[in-house]
Each structure stands twice: as structure tokens, then as C-alpha cells.
């Protein structure tokens, strides 16, 4: 290869960048094309197909969408999905922010920060299914929570709504996804220039004022990224709702997976298209508040 | 050092409770998996034994646990290697702005936020409609990559955002070719982060459920097998399996973290102190 001379940015350089860039990005591009873009296109196409009892037939009909929007269940299930997302978001944000704040501003040595941070993230690398299963001995009818409350005399009979209820669903969501808040918020907090906080203190701000007027505004990008993660994970979930509600509650994901189980792929696809659009609109709104590439 | 404010103790308590919330349930099933043979899914413990672990190793245990473990392990390694290689290439590509890089970036974000069941459904449909058999090593492998690659790439973006370009310039000034610069300068510097990417690639694949659900075909991966057990197994054998695979995950995480620590140490030892002031 010839030694490169510093050349002025000419159209040629940009062209060359584009070629090399595409060459290097080709493998990722290929994977995403085949396993992300094509599947989405396929789902959109199949959402216009017809289903017979044992197979699906290519067609161009709107009946899947008509059925979807004509059914009351759809609206209730979508509303329920938003409800799960909103409640989980509020809890994960509250807990995640507090944990990140403690790690970033109250733990003084870097080693301890890393160790405690890792302790928060390790469960992310273990199985979600098992972490859900592990609530059974705690929440079950004769579980730890009920027997403790009974032995304390708080309740006389075991609470029935602990396991297999909306309560259990939200609890599992918070349990599974809080670290998606902790990590980005902690990351943003660690980049806050400590002298800003000192300056605020020198100017006479109280601890609460520093938190509200300095730290929270500067942490917003992290909060937004965490929000994107939590909201999309909860909105797209189907397995947590199915397992933790004991099949008693529904969200959009379960609607889709139920259709799949009945081999009603066109109907599942129509619901999937609507879900995808909903999620993308939510993300589109959230992305207006944060430039992800700048925050990495 | 100034004394700790009172808020420190309140927050420290909160943090401890959070850790208890995170780990408590898992520790509970770990304890319960040592139930005696007559024990049930909750406390009290009816004696302690290895009965339920022994059950796992016997033939009559439900399903094909060990087969699914082998498949999950192999798939995890495949996904890990692919994720590391593709993410490094993608990360390098994104260092210079190229036409279409914005579009690709949004594609990666979409891959991250798209509900997993859509990938499962879409990939499953493509394979079935074009007459291919879904299999964990083809459709399952690709479906999992849509989940691991975005994480790998985001890590690489973060790494290259902090990368000091003067090292490369120095190498080039000394006459190194682009390949030599990459091989002897860039890769050793980003090495420890690659172990992080590998950790994400392996563990996210090993535990993936939703994206593998309709794409793994007739041979289950371990998470699918475990989920199948939840509907028909009501003995602590479920906990024993959960405990074993969690221990396996923890061992892998520990291994990766040790490797990262070692390679960071090596880097610190082998690297010169030039430019230390800038770090």
C-alpha cells in the first residue's frame, strides 16, 4: 500500500470512505437485512393473507386488520400494554435513578464503584426465565411472603393476588428490567463534571437543589436511553405476562403468541404490524429528546 | 475526607435492599433445590438432599435436558464469535462517516427495540414459506444475532469514541501498513473490550428465549426446554435445573471478567508509559 498523503477532503475521499465503510459493515448489513428487514417485510405481506384451518393463503385482504380494529379486546389489550409499560417505567426509573445516584455520587473509590456496578449487572447475563421461576417460592399461596405475613398477624388467610396477577407481572418486570435504567443513568452520571456540583454548593445550593437543578437535568440523556429500553422491552414482552399472570392477563405480545399457537399467522402478523408501529412511534418521540450516538 | 452525610446511610440501605431484591429469589430457589425427596416447591425444607440434582442426571427426567444444554452451549459459542468479529468490523466501519451510515445506525437501533416475537414470527414465516426447515443453527442463529449484534456494536461505538487516534498516526508515521496498524496497535488496545463483547454475545444467546421460540425447530435450546418444564413439572427438579444453569452462567461470567481483568493488566504492563498523562 502506498503511504497516505494528507489530502484535502475531496469527493474521492468520501467515495472511498463509503466503499471501505460498506465493505466493513457488510456482514452486519447482511445479517440485519436477512433476519430483521426481510422478516418485517414478510410480516407486513402475510398480514394481508388469508388463513384457512390448516394453512395460510396468499391474498390481499384487509380482513385481519378489520377484525383487529373491530374487536373490543384489541383496545383493552393495548391499553393494558400501555398500563404495564407506564407502571414499570415509573418504578424502574425511581429505583434505577436512586441506585445509580448512590453509586456515582456516594461511593467514593472507583474500585468499589466497579464492584457494586457489576453486582447490579450480573443478573442481566443470567436467564430471565429462571429469574421469573424464582419468584414462585416467594409469592406462592404457601410462599414466604404469605407465611411471613400470617405469622406476623398482618393477615389471617393467604393473599391470593401475590402470584399469578398483575402485581406479579409488574414485580417481575421491575425485577428483570431495572438494570436497563441503572446502566445508562450511571454512565451519564459518571460523566458529570464534579466541579459543577462544587460550584453549585459554593453558590449556596442545598443538596436537594443540586439534585433537582444540576444532576437531574444533566442525567436526562441517560434517563431517556433507559426509558427506551424499558418501554420497548415491556411493550414487546409476552412471556413474562403469560408466566407471571398465570395466563390471566393479556398484553399485545400475548395476543400475537396466542394467534401463533393457533397457526393463525395472518392475524398474528396484523397485530404484529400494529405493535411494531406503536413501538416505533413511541421510540420516535423519545429519540427527539436524546442523541444516542453522542451518549455512548 | 469529610464525614459521610446521613443521606449516604439511607441510600446505602436502599442499595442493599435492591441487591436483596435482585438476588434474593435466585438464592431462594438455590436453597430449595436441595429439598429432601418429599419436599415441595416452597418452604419448609423437608430435609436436605441431592435427590433433585440426581433426578436431572437420570434417564427418566423429563425432556432432553442435556441435549438442549449442548445445543445452547454450541449456539452460544457460534453467536459469540460472530458477534465479536462482526461488531469489530462494524465498529471500524463507523469510525469514518460513510454514505448510508445513518441508515445503518437506525437499523441497528430498530434491531434492538423491535419486539422479539416479531423476529421469531418473521424469520419463522420466511423459512416455512420458502420451504426451508427452521433449525437452531440456521434460523435460530440468525434470529439471536439480531439481539446480540446491537449490543456488541454499541459497545464498540463507546470504545472507539474514546479511542486516541494519535496511536494510529504514530504507527503510520513509522511506516506501518493499515493492516499492521490494525493488528499491532488497534486490536491490542481494544482487546479487553472485545472480551466484554464476547460476554454479551455468549450469555445473551445462552439465555435467549423469545427470538428462538419459533426459529429453533424441533430441537429445543435450554431456555425453551426449561420453559416447557414450567408447565408440567411441579417438583423441585425445576429449581435444581435452574440452579445448575445459573451456576454455569455465573462461571462463564466469572471467566470472562477474569479474562478482561488479566488482559487489562497485560495491556498496562506491556504498553509503554508514553501518553500516560493523557489517559
From TrEMBL, chain A:
Listed GO CC annotations: plasma membrane
Topological relation to the membrane, as annotated: Multi-pass membrane protein
GO biological process: transmembrane transport
Transmembrane segments: 20-49, 84-104, 110-126, 161-186, 264-290
Domain ABC transmembrane type-1: 78-286
Location in the cell: Cell membrane
Matching InterPro entries: MetI-like
CDD domains reported in the protein's UniProt record: TM_PBP2 (cd06261)
Keywords assigned: Cell membrane, Membrane, Transmembrane, Transmembrane helix, Transport
Family classification: Belongs to the binding-protein-dependent transport system permease family. CysTW subfamily.
Protein name: ABC transporter permease
Organism: Roseobacter insulae
Automatic annotation (TrEMBL), chain B:
Domain ABC transmembrane type-1, chain residue ranges per copy: 69-256
UniProt keyword annotations, A-Z: Cell membrane, Membrane, Transmembrane, Transmembrane helix, Transport
Primary location recorded for the protein, binned into one broad class: membrane
Top-level taxon of the source organism: Bacteria
Listed transmembrane segments: 7-34, 73-94, 103-127, 147-164, 185-206, 237-262
GO biological process, any: transmembrane transport
InterPro entries: Bact_Polyamine_Transport, MetI-like
Entry's Gene Ontology cellular component terms: plasma membrane
Membrane topology, from the record: Multi-pass membrane protein
Annotated compartments: Cell membrane
Family: Belongs to the binding-protein-dependent transport system permease family. CysTW subfamily.
Name of this protein: ABC transporter permease
